[in-house]
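[Meeting: bench + compute handoff]

Bench side (C.D.) handed over the final construct sequence. Compute side (W.E.) agreed to return the predicted structure before the next meeting so the bench team could plan truncations. Sequence as handed over:
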Amino acid sequence: MINAKKIEEIAKQVTDAIPSSLKNMANEFEDKAKTVLQNKLSQLDVVTREEFDVQTQVLLKTRAKLTELEAKLVELEEKIAAS
């Protein structure tokens, strides 16, 4: 998900592009734009970076365990074939 800092940067860029005579309206627009963006982004089916990193670690451990089990299976198959 896009982090709040990125949303604030986008909103600030929009605000900076508005003439100074419209700053009050720009501030209200910035607040509303942030709210709308955050609401819409929260509706997306995405995971946080933290959740992604956790799942990446789980996957790495699972792959390591699978490799270990595959090696044991080959070893057992070789023992059975030698019998």
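W.E. noted at the follow-up: The chain has two domains: 1-46, 47-83. C.D. will use this when planning the next construct.
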